[in-house]
Design brief:
Helix content: 25-40%
Shape: elongated
Number of helices: 10
Order of helices and strands: HHHHHEEEHEEEEEHEHEHH
Structural class: alpha/beta
Largest sheet: 6 strands, mixed
Strand content: 5-15%
Strand order of the largest sheet: 1-5-4-9-3-10
CATH class of the largest domain: Alpha Beta
CATH architecture of the largest domain: 3-Layer(aba) Sandwich
CATH superfamily of the largest domain: Peptidoglycan recognition protein-like
Length: 277
């Protein structure tokens, strides 16, 4: 990649800018390579990163690069995973071919937020191998669970263990931290045999699963930090995938036979969540 020289003629600068291309797919958080630098240059050209941000870590797929990829994905109606895969590569290539936006010279400022809209809250990537393809099913349901313990580290380790054969897309710890174990575009293994509004269906294939760290006894309170994070996360997912309000359910609402599951626990404040979203 040719680096722009501020002393170069305008024609040379335009040639350098025109040379920005989309790197091959398959880049993710933590990668260090020339391909990551190529991705960053493309994001700068499209206005998703600043020159200053790229200069602080060229070739390193860090938090700023992931945030830029996630924002690009959201703007192009793609799953907001932060992973630069085939779909994101195709969209980036198309955007660059269309000319994109000029590079941003300084720190970017977020636009004014609209009432009733949500952005994806910060998540900690903790990939689980326990997932498979949705098989073409659209996301139209959100299922809430309690983990069955108050030990977030243990719950996280269990869902990341391939022998457990269980997972969820997200886990909310007691302190409100959100861990993403499975990308939204994949089918996590959280609901088992189920139905939706009385109709048998592959709940896992059509839903996002959220595990909330709580022992499920009905005596252990869900924390304020959990409600705050959950409201932002569910509000975002509801908005992103156009999930009907009556499809935001608990595991106990979809598990069959009835009574097989009780989560989230009886003391979970559904009214508080629904008022927030």
């Amino acid at each position: 990649m040719q680096i722009r020289n501020t002393a170069a003629p305008a024609a040379t600068a335009r040639t350098a800018a025109a040379a920005v291309t989309a790197p091959p797919a398959g880049l993710e958080f933590g990668n260090r390579s020339p391909q990551v630098k190529q991705l960053q240059d493309a994001l700068v050209k499209l206005g998703y990163m600043t020159k200053e941000q790229v200069a602080t870590g060229p070739g390193v797929f860090g938090n700023k690069t992931k945030a830029a990829v996630t924002k690009f994905q959201g703007d192009h109606k793609l799953p907001t995973t932060g992973y630069y895969g085939d779909l994101t590569h195709a969209a980036l290539k198309k955007a660059l071919a269309a000319g994109g936006k000029p590079p941003v010279e300084g720190p970017s400022k977020p636009g004014p937020s609209k009432p009733g809209t949500f952005t994806k809250p910060p998540v900690i990537n903790a990939p689980s191998p326990n997932s498979n393809s949705r098989g073409g099913m659209d996301i139209d349901t959100i299922v809430l669970h309690h983990t069955g313990s108050n030990n977030g580290a243990g719950d996280l380790a269990w869902m990341r263990n391939p022998q457990s054969q269980v997972s969820a897309h997200y886990m909310l710890d007691r302190d409100g931290k959100i861990y993403q174990l499975v990308g939204d575009e994949k089918r996590a293994w959280h609901a088992g045999k189920g139905e939706l509004h009385g109709v048998p269906t592959d709940v896992n294939g059509r839903s996002i699963g959220i595990e909330i760290v709580n022992d499920g006894s009905g005596k252990t309170a869900f924390t304020d930090a959990q409600y705050k994070s959950l409201t932002q996360l569910v509000g975002y997912l509801k908005q992103e995938y156009k999930v009907p309000a009556n499809n935001i359910v608990g595991h106990k609402d979809v598990a069959v036979p009835k009574g097989r599951k009780s989560d989230p626990a009886a003391n979970f404040d559904w009214k508080r969540l629904r008022a927030g979203i």
